[in-house]
Design goal:
- The protein is α/β, with parallel strands linked by helices.
- Helices cover about 45% and strands about 15% of the residues.
- It folds into two domains: about 200 residues, Rossmann fold (3-Layer(aba) Sandwich), CATH 3.40.50; about 55 residues, Arc Repressor Mutant, subunit A (Orthogonal Bundle), CATH 1.10.10.
- It contains 14 helices and eight strands.
- Strand 1 and strand 2 form a beta hairpin.
- One of its GO terms (molecular function) is hydrolase activity.
Length: about 350
């Protein structure tokens, strides 16, 4: 399964990149606070999560302005901008009506879109969301975290990873910390985090008409369960599913259980386990050297190969894993081999 990239253009000319994978009726995934279509596809846990959602659905994901592959914008009305992004991506992907999935910040954003565009949303699934952002943390905590992201983005990404995925292994934590920094600048990350704290969809919930499933982990450290319950209580006929765990990131923790609950909300059957993609021992060696930032020539020297052979190994890895860049290979290696001493991705 490989994702196909496309581009939607906003009225002001901003290019929004989106990815399509799978087949069947459309489902649009509204991401959490930051995202990167290519690097996310390279992280094994994240890719398995999306592949699980795309079995029986044509899954469409996007990077919002200033994140991942999409162009930046100077606009400050980020919530209204997001609604325009969703409409633009839907139009570019050929979607008239679709299922809508929102995770983390994507949950209140998806709720607002469903309230304002009921004709476009068939089913609505909200994971790890909230009604009022100012309920996520005390004012002093919000001020401290925003300042940390603004002034010390590297350290802040490590801190946020501990909050978002406290039970993840070392490889995932290292990868996800870097993933956040690769996905957005500190300025963009701060604006989006401020939006998390500022958004309030309490007046939108009563206008949602789509069949809705709200899913929340019981001890989520980033978004309290009480906010998930408020989402479900405010939407007529909504079903609340509470899962065990304290991890906020959807593809960490018991991701398989979450995938199946989302699938149930979309009217899909449970997913059978699938084998993870593997590389040969030699390909793993080459991937490790790619993650260290070595060129094909340097890899050839390290492994006593011809440069052409090294290039061929890299190309086979890329095709085997369905990747487009060396950065994706590096991200895959760091996430797959947590014991490796590789701290960052290389382009």
């Amino acid at each position: 399964m490989e994702q196909r990239l496309g581009t939607a253009t906003l009225l002001d000319g901003t290019a929004i990149r989106f990815a399509v994978v799978g087949s069947g009726p459309f489902a649009l995934y509204v991401p959490g606070w930051v995202s990167h279509l290519e690097l996310g596809w390279a992280i094994p846990a994240e890719r398995l999560f999306y592949e699980g959602l795309s079995s029986g659905r044509t899954l469409v994901r996007y990077d919002r302005p200033g994140c991942g592959l999409s162009e930046a914008t100077d606009r400050s009305d980020l919530v209204e901008l997001e609604l325009q992004v969703i409409r633009a991506v839907a139009a570019a992907a050929g979607m008239d009506a679709f299922d809508l999935i929102g995770a983390s910040l994507g949950a209140p954003l998806a709720a607002r879109f469903a309230a304002r565009h009921p004709e476009s949303v068939n089913r609505l699934v909200l994971y790890g969301g909230w009604v009022q952002g100012d309920e996520l943390a005390a004012p002093a905590v919000r001020h401290h975290v925003l300042g940390l992201v603004d002034q010390h983005w590297g350290f802040a990404s490590d801190v946020l990873t501990e909050i978002f995925a406290p039970d993840a292994d070392a490889g995932f934590r290292a990868t996800f910390s870097t993933y956040q920094r690769e996905s957005a600048s500190s300025a963009t990350a701060r604006r989006l985090l401020a939006t998390c704290y500022e958004i309030d969809v309490s007046e939108d919930l009563g206008r949602i008409r789509a069949q809705t499933t709200v899913i929340h982990r019981a001890d989520d450290r980033a978004a309290p369960l009480a906010e998930g319950k408020r989402l479900a209580d405010g939407i007529a006929g909504a079903t609340l599913k509470v899962l065990p765990g304290r991890t906020h990131v959807p593809f960490a923790g018991d991701a398989e259980g979450l995938v199946n609950e989302i699938r149930a909300g979309l009217g899909l059957p449970r997913l059978q386990r699938t084998a993870r993609r593997t590389l040969t021992p030699r390909q793993v060696q080459v991937a490790a050297l790619v993650a260290q930032g070595l060129s094909n020539r340097q890899i050839a020297e390290e492994l006593v190969l011809t440069e052409r052979s090294a290039e061929s190994h890299v190309e086979r890895i890329r095709l085997r894993l369905g990747f487009r860049s060396r950065a994706q290979i590096a991200a895959w290696y760091v996430a797959s081999y947590p014991q490796a001493d590789v701290r960052y991705f290389h382009g």
